[in-house]
Amino acid sequence: MTRILRSALPRALLAVIGLSVVAILVRDAGPERVGRVMWQAGSWLPAILALELLQLFSDFVALRQLLGRGWSKVSAATWVRSSAVAYAMMILLPAGRAAGEITRATLVAAHIGAPRAATASTQLQAVYLWANGVLSAAAWAVAASRFGIGAPLSLLLAGNVVAQTAIAGGLLAILWDARVGRWLERTRRKLARTQGEPPAPLDPSVGRMLPWRAAIVCTVARGAQVLQYGVILRAVGGVPTVRGAFIAHGIHLIGTTLGDMLPNQVGVVDGAYRAFARDVGFGDAPERALSIAFVARVAQLIVAGACVVVASLYRRTQSSEPAAPASTGADVRS
Question: Which of 16, 24, 257, 319 is deepest in the core (most CB within 10 A)?
Fold first, then answer.
C-alpha cells in the first residue's frame, strides 16, 4: 500500500499542477470567450474524431508490419483489446506511450511469446518517435522560413527534432545488444516494473536497421495529424493554411514532449499554445489559441473513453480464449 501511494502521489500532484495551470490560462483568456469558441468548434468534431481514430488505427497497422507473419497468431479479440488499452493509457496516464506499449506487449505476448511482443513494442515506440522527429523537422522548416531560425518556436522545434530522433535511436540501441543497449534495457525494465507490468526480455535476433515500412506508416499517420490540426485551426476560427497547420501541429509536438510526465500533457500543451498564440494568428485572441489544445483534448478523451469501454467488453472474450503456444521470438523480422 505504501508503495502504491508513493507512486500515485507524485502523479496526482503533477495532475493538480497541470489543471491549475489550465484554470489560470482560462481565467486570463476569459472563460466565456473560451466557452463560445468551444461551442462553435463543435460542428467540426466528427471530422476531428475521424482523424484521431486514424492515429489509433495506424499503430495497429504499424505493429502488424513489425510482427510479420506472427500477427496471424494473435486473436482478433486480443488485437482489439490491446489497441484500445494502449490508446487509453497513452491519453490518460503520465508517460502514456511507454505505459501503453508495455501493456500492449503483455497482452499480445500470450500468443507470440514475450520476447517477440516486447521487441515489436519497442520498435513501434521507436518508429513513432522517429515520425515525430520528421514532422517536427517539417514544422521547423515552416517556422524558420516564416519567423527566422533564431525565433523561440524555431529553436524549440529544432530541439524537439534532436530529442525525438535521439530517443528513437536509444530505443533501437536496446535491440543492438551493445553496452549502451544493455544500460537502456535495464532502464526499460525498471520502467516496466513501475507500471506494474512484468518486464519481458527482448529478442536479440532483430537487425539494426530502422523498420522502414512501419516508420512510413507512422509518418503518414502523423501527416494526417497535421491535417487534423488544420481542421482544428479552422474550427476555432483561424485560417486553415498549410503553414498554419504545420505550426499548430509543431506546437502540439513541443508540448507533448515537454509535458510527457503529465496525464495528456495537461497544462503544458495549453501553455505552449498560449505562449505562441501570435504564431498561429491569435495574438489578440488567446481564447482561440487555448481552444486548439482543448478541442484536441476533447477528441482524445472521447476516443479514450470509447477505448476503455471496448477493452472492458473484450476482456471477457479474451479471457475465455485458449492461449496460443508461446513463440521463442527467434524469427522476428522488421
Answer: 257
